[in-house]
């Protein structure tokens, strides 16, 4: 039969294992803020809301986005890449600014988009219209922590690009 000291030691060991597993799970949650689904799910929810089909993840676009995000990681300035793709960028003041938070900022511009006139009214809406642009069917995004300015820089690249003058997004 086990002594009280052996039972105590076993209980302590179990507590350490449980604490270690909990910490490991929490660390994976924070890393998951860069997963393709963390970008795709809010994009596709906004698109479904206006009856536009879902996007798929594109590794070429994701590599392009990551390359540009790494260039911006030093200063975190909201400067567009002027590349061949449609693009949304965002900056969050904390290192925990997530993919979903960035996409939600863009989608929150929906109230400024007037479908009847196809114009932004009362504020910016072009980030939103890029998210729901019907011809944008491939998505690649990246999220980096800014070394100099602090915070987090997020970029999403879209193929085909949206926001063509005179055309409606959906």
UniProtKB/TrEMBL annotation:
SUPFAM superfamilies assigned = PR-1-like
List the keywords (alphabetical). Answer: Disulfide bond, Signal
Q: Which parts of the sequence belong to the SCP domain?
A: 34-166
Q: Name one Pfam family in it.
A: CAP
Q: Which Gene3D superfamilies match?
A: CAP (3.40.33.10)
| SMART domains for this protein | SCP
Task: Give an example GO biological process.
Answer: defense response to other organism
Q: Which PANTHER family match?
A: CYSTEINE-RICH SECRETORY PROTEIN-RELATED
The family annotation for this protein states:
Belongs to the CRISP family.
Tell me what this protein is called. Allergen V5/Tpx-1-related
Query: Could you read off the lineage of the organism from its UniProt record?
Result: Eukaryota, Viridiplantae, Streptophyta, Embryophyta, Tracheophyta
């Amino acid at each position: 039969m086990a002594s009280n000291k052996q039972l105590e030691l076993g209980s302590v060991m179990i507590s350490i294992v449980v604490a270690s597993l909990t910490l490991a799970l929490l660390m994976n949650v924070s890393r998951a803020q860069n997963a393709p689904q963390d970008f795709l799910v809010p994009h596709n929810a906004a698109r479904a809301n206006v009856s536009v089909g879902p996007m798929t993840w594109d590794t070429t676009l994701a590599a392009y986005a990551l390359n540009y995000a790494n260039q911006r990681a030093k200063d975190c300035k909201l400067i567009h890449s002027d590349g061949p793709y449609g693009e949304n960028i965002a900056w969050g003041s904390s290192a925990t600014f997530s993919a979903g938070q960035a996409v939600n900022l863009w989608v929150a511009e929906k109230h400024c988009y007037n479908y009847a006139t196809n114009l932004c009214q009362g504020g910016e809406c072009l980030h939103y219209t890029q998210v729901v642009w019907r011809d944008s069917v491939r998505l690649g995004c990246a999220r980096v922590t800014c070394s100099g300015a602090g915070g987090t820089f997020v970029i999403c690249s879209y193929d085909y690009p949206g926001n063509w003058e005179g055309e409606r997004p959906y």
